[in-house]
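Sanity check. The docking grid for S-adenosylmethionine depends on where the pocket ends up, so I'm generating a full predicted complex first rather than guessing from homology. Inputs follow.
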Amino acid sequence: MPALPDLLAPGRAGEERDGYLDLLGAGEDPTGSLPGQRLMASRVLPLIYERLWRPLGGRVLMGALGPSMAGERRIALDMLEISPGDRVLDVACGTGSFSRAFADAGGEVVGLDASRTMLAQAVREEKNPARPGVAYVRASATDLPFRDGSFDAVCCFAALYLIEDLLVAVAEIARVVAPGGRVALLSSVARGPLPAGVSDAVVRPLTGVRIFGRDDLTRALADGGLVDVRRRVSGLAQFVSARRPGSNPAAP
Ligand SMILES: C[S@@+](CC[C@H](N)C(=O)[O-])C[C@H]1O[C@@H](n2cnc3c(N)ncnc32)[C@H](O)[C@@H]1O
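Predicted complex below; grid placement will be based on this.
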């Protein structure tokens, strides 16, 4: 498990709660007020999230021929190229299924989410003594509590479309990636004849899920100074990878 104090930005302190470090105040809830966003903070969803909700959601977004959950984990691992000892941040980790896969690959993993109930479930899922631990943190994806360049790999799957301010979230992800570090994102993308704005205007108020235009994410990553920005589209989803230029002076 990574040593959180080495990664936290100066002045960031929180309270240990139910097995995770809570850096948000009691009244702070950045998960948003639209229906799909509220579900993420509910008590029931985390219980069925990993085995039912998320696999079904993947099918809706990517179609019957899209990658399974195991396939998604492989894609994330390919994009992030995790070596043993790499510091890995899983932004909006939910119940931590990707965080645990990164820990299994040898990463020193921090899982960050804003939902207390998702994090409590992630901690329960973590209680497998054979698995290297993940450090869980409650904080906002739009105000990451970490020092600049503190992670070798940053993942954010199935969450950017729920976050109110995409550009701030992507800028934060770009800020915390170390030189030579990798980023992997999974989010929605508009397909077909309708402009993204039209699909978004219909889908978002009902579900909380934003439909991104084809270049919104890739442009935001490039604007954050990342290079080698690559995209793979699957149904209404896009997997996007990128890298911060340079090499990490701390690497062996
Ligand atoms: C659909 S789940 C994705 C979980 C996991 N990444 C996965 O792929 O299965 C979306 C997660 O985003 C989190 N989330 C939404 N808005 C957030 C924000 N502003 N900051 C941190 N987490 C947020 C929710 O609490 C929820 O756990």
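Relevant for the grid: The chain has a mean pLDDT of 90.
Also worth noting: The longest helix spans residues 45-62.
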